[in-house]
Structure formats: C-alpha cells, structure tokens
C-alpha cells in the first residue's frame, strides 16, 4: 500500500525516528532502544516510512540499516513554503505597525 508522505510524518514516533536517522543510518534495534515500545512497533513505523520512500533500508551483512531519504523531505518543504510567504507578509505588516507605534 502506497501511503502519503504526510501520513508518515503525522505520527510523533515516526517523526522521532526521522530525527534519529537524519545524521546516521541505524539498525531497527538501535532505533528501538530510543523508545519505550516494542521492536515490532518500531518495525511497523519503519515499514510505513519505507513505503513512503522517506526511509531507505540497506542490507549490510546480517543487519539492515535505515537511512533518511533527504530528497523526499522536499515534498514537505514545498508544501510548507506556500504558507511561508503568507507568514512573512504578515510579519512584515506587523513590523510596519510596530514601527509606526514606536514613532
């Protein structure tokens, strides 16, 4: 089942996993050591992240290492960026109001 990238990041545990593997690839056991849950639950989160292509699994010997597909995060950035322009305009307007009030 192909899932949407936003479904993947909707869960706080999956966001935490993304943060963990952002700097280095990790095995499921190493990832699970950072959570108060079962390894099976972490594996389920990893499967969803992999289905969304946010995470890549790579076999190295007997271990599987999961790493972040940084390029896939651009989809999130593109979506958020359309709202960034609105925020920046509003902050600019707020700066103008504050400058006027200071005078």
Automatic annotation (TrEMBL):
Annotated signal sequence range: none
Matching Pfam families: HTH_20 (PF12840)
GO molecular function, one term: DNA binding
TM annotation in the entry: none
SMART domains per UniProt: HTH_ARSR
Domain HTH arsR-type as annotated: residue spans: 1-88
UniProt superkingdom: Bacteria
Gene3D superfamilies attached to this UniProt entry: Winged helix-like DNA-binding domain superfamily/Winged helix DNA-binding domain (1.10.10.10)
Tagged with keyword Cytoplasm: no
Keywords: DNA-binding, Transcription, Transcription regulation
PANTHER family hit by this protein: TRANSCRIPTIONAL REGULATOR, ARSR FAMILY, TRANSCRIPTIONAL REPRESSOR SDPR
Protein name: ArsR family transcriptional regulator
Species the sequence originates in: Spirosoma radiotolerans
């Amino acid at each position: 089942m192909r899932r949407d990238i936003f479904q993947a990041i909707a869960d706080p545990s999956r966001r935490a996993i993304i943060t963990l593997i952002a700097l280095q690839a990790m095995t499921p056991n190493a990832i699970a050591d950072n959570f108060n849950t079962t390894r099976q639950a972490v594996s389920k989160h990893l499967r969803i992240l992999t289905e969304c292509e946010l995470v890549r699994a790579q076999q190295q010997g007997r271990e599987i290492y999961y790493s972040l597909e940084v390029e896939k995060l651009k989809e999130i950035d593109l979506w958020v960026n359309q709202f960034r322009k609105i925020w920046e305009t509003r902050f600019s307007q707020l700066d103008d109001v504050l400058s006027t009030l200071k005078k």
